[in-house]
Design brief:
By secondary structure, this protein is mostly beta strands. The chain has no helices and nine strands. It has two domains: about 40 residues, no CATH class; about 70 residues, no CATH class. Strands 5-6-9 form a three-stranded antiparallel beta sheet, with no helix packed on it. It is elongated, with a radius of gyration of 26 Å.
Length: about 120
């Protein structure tokens, strides 16, 4: 394995590895009187895991007579990352079944790119 160390500050250093496997890191500290102590820790470097896309919708959506007869569909992102990475991008795709045939391939699909966990779409 090739490690590329990077000093972050006086108490922190980062190592970068492009391979999986075991790594052993040791730290030796010495005080002004010359006394020292060492601690060694082993860790296993594993492959990054893909996030799991998940969201929920309200089951029934009604058109609102006080909102120009528009229905607002709300989608709530519930996606997770099994290894704790931050989810930095969400790409929402949506279409309205304009002829009520249950087939969306003949309808226009829209795209919304954002980092928000919530998405609102207004239907007329």
């Amino acid at each position: 394995m090739i490690f590329i160390p990077k000093k972050l500050n006086d108490k922190e250093i980062a190592f970068t590895s492009k391979k999986t496997g075991k790594v052993e890191i040791s730290l030796t500290v010495t005080n002004t009187l010359g006394y020292s102590n060492t601690r060694t820790i082993q860790r296993t470097i594993v492959n990054d895991q893909s996030p799991t896309a998940d969201f929920k919708l309200i089951k029934k959506v009604y058109r609102d007579k006080d909102n120009d007869k528009k229905a607002i569909v709300r989608a709530f992102d519930m996606s997770t990352s099994p290894d704790g990475d931050s989810i930095t991008k969400r790409a929402w795709f949506y279409a309205f079944d304009s002829d009520n045939d249950g087939i969306f391939s003949d309808d226009t699909w829209y795209y919304h790119n954002g980092t928000s966990c919530r998405f609102w779409y207004s239907l007329r």
